[in-house]
Amino acid sequence: VKSSDPIAVFDSGLGGLTVFRAIRKHLPRENLFYFGDTAHLPYGTKSAETVRRLTLGHLEFLTRRRIKCAVIACNTASAVALQALKRRLHIPVLGVIDPGIREAIVATRNGRIGVLGTATTVASGAYQRGLKNQGRRIRLVAQACPLFVPLIEEGWSRHPVTEAVARHYLAPLIRARVDTVVMGCTHYPLIRAVLQRILGSNVRLVDSAFAVARQTGRSLREMSMLCAKRKRGAARFFLTDTGGSFPLVAARFLGEAPGKLTAVGLGFKVLAKAKLA
Ligand code: DGL
């Protein structure tokens, strides 16, 4: 592995471009791969086992293309597949959950933290476990927000319906008087303004995307693996389905035209054979 080899940013779809963008901003010289499993999106409603199987398969594909480390931008995949990835792959693998937790612990004054995530992320208990390992007495309120991803994908980030849904999801956090809330999903930074308005300006919102970008920089520095090149790094995109309006959405997320795009053909396996009556 060379320091000029790319960092792979993995997500279930295009939402992980929030993480890609944060890494690009923080580490502009790095070569980056972005992999979005658009054929299987969303992960947030699927079983842990399915998310793990998909994530492992795609990361093996990426490691065959020589990457120096992998960032699992998807909170759902980080919640249920990170340990398996760390065991299986021979490169550093970073998830978004621990960096988000660390920032939240530093930010909170009253020790009451809220986490917003997909149904699978919240059900996995990953945030709950991660906070327990930090050793500090923290009260955690974890809230699944299954309607946020489709609303954001639909471009309804500022729609009154999204505001009403957000009020519903945030009510238990407000009741618990949390002073810090982790946006535990790739998509939520896009409704940051709505969340902040409902929670009030005294509540600190933690963006896992920036937390993991900083963590990636620290980890690469410690290993002396930061890319030494002077020019801006290259970006390459892999998607398992290109049916959507990728260049358009990507440009909106990135503020720049996306680089080279490769559609990844998937070899589907027959998992179970059923006899038809
Ligand atoms: N990327 C997922 C996450 O951060 C959200 C979208 C999905 O459900 O696949 O949890």
Helix content: 40-55%
Succession of helices and strands: EHEHEHEHEHHEHHEHEHEHE
Structure summary, number of beta strands: 10
Low-confidence stretches: 266-277
Overall pLDDT level: 90
**In angstroms, what separates the terminal alpha carbons?**
53 Å
Structural class: alpha/beta
Label the overall shape: globular
List the helices and strands and how they pair.
Elements: E1 7-11, H1 17-26, E2 32-36, H2 48-63, E3 69-72, H3 75-88, E4 93-95, H4 97-107, E5 112-117, H5 119-124, H6 126-133, E6 139-144, H7 148-153, H8 160-175, E7 180-183, H9 192-199, E8 204-207, H10 208-222, E9 235-239, H11 246-254, E10 260-263
Parallel strand pairs: 1-2, 1-3, 2-9, 3-4, 5-6, 5-7, 7-8, 9-10
Q: Can you tell me about this structure?
A:
The structure is a single chain. The chain has 277 residues and is of the alpha/beta class. It has helices at 17-26, 48-63, 75-88, 97-107, 119-124, 126-133, 148-153, 160-175, 192-199, 208-222, 246-254, and strands at residues 7-11, 32-36, 69-72, 93-95, 112-117, 139-144, 180-183, 204-207, 235-239, 260-263. Strands 4-3-1-2-9-10 form a 6-stranded parallel beta sheet, with helices on both faces. A 4-stranded parallel beta sheet has the order 6-5-7-8, sandwiched between helices. The radius of gyration is 18 Å and the shape is globular. The N and C termini lie far apart (53 Å). D-glutamic acid binds next to helix 3.
